[in-house]
Amino acid sequence: MTEQKHTNDPLNVDEALSTSEAFLIKNKNVLLGAVVALVVIVGGFLGYKHFISEPNELKASEAIFKGEQYFGADNFEVALKGDSLGYAGFVKLADEFSGTDAGNLANAYAGLCYAQLGKYEDAIKYLDKFSGDDLLVAPSVMGTLGNCYAQTGQLDKAAATLLKAADRANSLSISPIFLIQAGQILEKQGKNAEAVEAYKQVKNKYGNSYQAMDIDKYIERASLK
């Protein structure tokens, strides 16, 4: 693991990360919409009765709303640490409302903000705390976690997490991305047979995806090593 972390050839990892960064971070509005939807479903917006019985959940959900706006405006530092107008920041909110659904969501936001800022160790800390059962946000957060592992040289964890995210999502739009990333990381480690298996999943299971158009090139490259 230590040898992988100090490799002199980071370009393969960078290539493996680029697609996911484009989907999960640069095109964050897609994720933002899904995350907000998750709040609507499980974060406390389940009706007036829920608000009355769970006042702390409502308070937490209202508290992170401003952070979501900062996140959507690419103001990641303020989203994390807060402003001078009363917004505390995702880091404090995750701690203050620990145990609530909104606090759980604040962990995801904090992790995504840290990832965007290139602070991958901090991103891992918060992304790893997030838990969810939905079919978009939870796998997307897991995929980002996998990429952060790769950025910190933890390639075994990176590949395993990306494969898990792909399986959990079972999605034509994001599963092929994670499978290709995992395959590229596995190739970097010399695990070419495992890389081929990841690529073949794209070909056989997600053959109608955009990524499947060039997947034969990946399969051939890994097979010839």
From TrEMBL:
InterPro entries: SecYEG/CpoB_TPR (IPR018704), TPR-like_helical_dom_sf (IPR011990), TPR_rpt (IPR019734). Keywords: Membrane, Transmembrane, Transmembrane helix. Gene3D superfamilies: Tetratricopeptide repeat domain (1.25.40.10). The chain crosses the membrane at residues 30-48. It holds the Pfam family TPR_21. Residues 23-209 form the Ancillary SecYEG translocon subunit/Cell division coordinator CpoB TPR domain. This is Ancillary SecYEG translocon subunit/Cell division coordinator CpoB TPR domain-containing protein. The lineage of its organism: Bacteria, Pseudomonadati, Bacteroidota, Bacteroidia, Bacteroidales.
